[in-house]
Amino acid sequence: MKMILRLIVSLVFVIACVVFTFSYWQARQEEVRLKNELERRASIIADSLKLSVEPLLPAEDRKYLQRIVDKFSNRERLVGIAVDDIQGHPVLASLGLKPKLKEYPKVLAHNIQEVERLNTEYGEFISFGKDSLHAYSVPLASNEKTTHVLTLFHDVAFIQERVHRIWINSFWRALVQALLITLTTTFVIYLNVMKPIKKTTEWIKKIRRGESPEKLDSKNEQLLGPLAREITKMAKSLEKARISAEEEARLRYATESQWTSDRLKEFVREKLHGKNLFVVSNREPYMHIKKGNGIECIIPASGLVTAIEPILKACGGTWIAQGNGSADRETVDKDDKLQVPPEEPQYVLRRIWIEKELDDGFYSGFSNEGIWPLCHIAHTRPIFRENDWEAYQKVNKKFAAAVLEEIKGIDEPNILIQDYHFALLPSMIKAVRPDTRVAIFWHIPWPNPESFGICPWRQEVLKGMLGADLIGFHTQFHCNNFIETVDRFLESRIDYEHFTVNREGQTSWIKPFPISIDFNSANNYPAGAAETKETLLKKYNIQAELIGLGVDRLDYTKGIVERFRAVELFLERYPLYRGQFTFIELAAPSRTIITKYKEFVDEVVRESERINARFKNKGWQPIHLLMKHHSHAAIAPFYRYADLCLVTSLHDGMNLVAKEYIAARQDGAGTLILSQFTGASRELKDAFIVNPYDVGQVAEAIRAALEMPLPEQRDKMLRMRAVLKDKNIYRWASMLIGELAGVRVEKA
Ligand code: ADQ
């Protein structure tokens, strides 16, 4: 587009220069021609008038002379006639001219002087007040001696008018030419360059995605010449490589136990019979924001994004999510879609727009001030407002409409709904398309029936969820809580042997799927150039030998304040570590418009400052609170060099930070202190499992972790790494998708 714009601007510039030069030349020519013509005309009139006036000069009676002068002055463009003596004294003038000559008595002085000097006719363009005139003077003689001067005044405004008109006409001509040339150029370039390039790009993309496209269009081949031939060759080898890689993956899948992206891809293709997957979540995986004059693409801090992204990367499909980045609207096509990841597109992101007021009720209100504290037993009271509930229903409806639009024409589509923002979505989709296979995965804990029972719309929420064929939680414990809650509040048939709920003919399977991370992905934790512990600490101006690390969204469920207090108690009990041990908290601001979260941020800052003020000494401080969203690449070196990682959530569905820390420890060193209230604590048995409310226990765990001999650290770390290598995100996805694909649905 920029290229076309540049071309058009250059063309318009050149046209403007050419038109300007020609117009200037034409205007000049016309002006000279008109002036010459005027002078010739003045000379003819003056000569014939001279013959009539000269004989009458000696006569005393000027009346006859005046009549002649008045009669002549009616001619076209002739403003008036004047007769002066050779000294410049006015003798007579035509009627209209008299008052003007009185006003400007010196106007003819130059003409008279020139006539006297040259003793012949003389013409000059003069300003007569506001008017521009041409004054043409001829000598009048008496007894062969020049005694008087006769002057004719012609109006020259018509010359300027004519020149002006030339410029106006040229302007319009230039404009029309520029417009025609611009349109033609754009059209020709679009048809002959842009369109073939676009088609070729699509063709290359298809090859890269593994779809076997038809041959490259022969027209495009002509345009791109040798480049096209090379690309075609490359495509062929890529296709061959892909086929053999898939074959290899198929063979591995039959024999290997570890889940990988390739194995998942094969598995999903087989299970979903090559169909794409539809994922719905509130948070989008890629957000575009305006930065300076440009647009930046960021990956929001979220466990959900971390977990779901690899699945869609592996099997392709459409992710439907809310677009709320400041440049999100500018980066989608007319259907609100874009291909992601931006650097290597593998699936489609469809953005849904929710007005601010509605989103406040849906996201901040019902989802995060209602359901979030309701499901997390962190002793923060949920707030339920009628308006928020209405907004929640409206947004669920809006997403349901988008999903139904996307799956139009697709037989038995598979839909994976993410999280507590969309409890009503499964039944909304099923009501219209009973042939869909719908799973909802609840990323946060499910509380006991007593806790859940305080929700004024508990039945509606449960009924909405029970529209799904599959309802997934992180742990069996959360599944138990859910089934007990359904049993307590809804009329339904529960099968405890298979863990299913049957309501009004719809069966929902309730199953645990402990979520995980892409353990092997070097991209998530890049080897990180030549960063060492020293350079890392220097970069952040941190003085310490031993590092404790916390990585969280700033959320009251993450136990950040409790963690700080444990650090405080640890330094109080073991003063030798002062000046040596520093705790670094990488905290990403989250849900900042909610009052509870604002208060929480203040509390976190206050506590860190209080503890720092208490212990800090000679450039060392116990807590470094780095409050911002960090990229995965920025977090990676912290994971790699932290002697311990503190995960002290008061309640957490799983907690991916614990898993990320372990995955990053390729050196086998480091220790994990993990809250017993996280889903992760069920799998990572070799961590120090602690009760975050027991500050003393956490302080002791910090000491034990720091003093654990390296071989013991390695033993534990290697065991935990083995667990995660096996129970990685691809296994999670395969379990979830395998179960979903096995669901029997009504035929469309
Ligand atoms: P979250 O509550 O968001 O997820 P978590 O599982 O810990 O919590 O995942 C957080 C993610 O955000 C991690 O990938 C982490 O690297 C990233 N992150 C944290 N702090 C960051 C920072 N300062 N800058 C940038 N990135 C940061 C919800 C549930 C969890 C569940 C996940 C997945 O609450 O219990 O594990 O979904 O299901």
Heterogens? adenosine-5'-diphosphate-glucose
Contiguous runs where pLDDT drops below 50 for at least 5 residues: none
Alpha-carbon distance between the two ends: 44 Å
Count up the helices.
23
By CATH, the topology of the largest domain is Rossmann fold
CATH class wording of the largest domain: Alpha Beta
Strands in their spatial order, largest beta sheet? 10-11-9-6-12-13-14-17-16-15
The CATH fourth-level homologous superfamily of the largest domain: Glycogen Phosphorylase B
Could you tell me the radius of gyration in angstroms?
Answer: 44 Å
Q: Using the alpha-carbon principal axes, give the shape.
A: elongated
| Main β sheet profile | 10 strands, mixed
Structural class: alpha/beta
Number of domains: 3
Total number of strands: 23
Question: What proportion of the residues form beta strands (DSSP E)?
Answer: 15-25%
Which architecture of the largest domain would the CATH scheme give at its second level? Answer: 3-Layer(aba) Sandwich
The chain-level mean pLDDT equals: 89
Helix content: 40-55%
Structure commentary:
This protein is α/β, with parallel strands linked by helices. It folds into three domains: 2-161, Beta-Lactamase, CATH 3.30.450.20; 276-361 and 393-512, 3-Layer(aba) Sandwich (Rossmann fold), CATH 3.40.50.2000; 532-727, 3-Layer(aba) Sandwich (Rossmann fold). A hairpin with a 4-residue loop joins strand 1 and strand 2 (90-93). Helix 6 (218-224) packs across helix 7. The longest helix is centred in the N-terminal third of the chain and has 53 residues, at 157-209. The radius of gyration is 44 Å and the shape is elongated. Bound molecules: adenosine-5'-diphosphate-glucose. Residues 301-304, 306-307, 443-444, 515, 551-553, 586-588, 629-630, 635, 652-657, 660 line the site of adenosine-5'-diphosphate-glucose (ADQ).
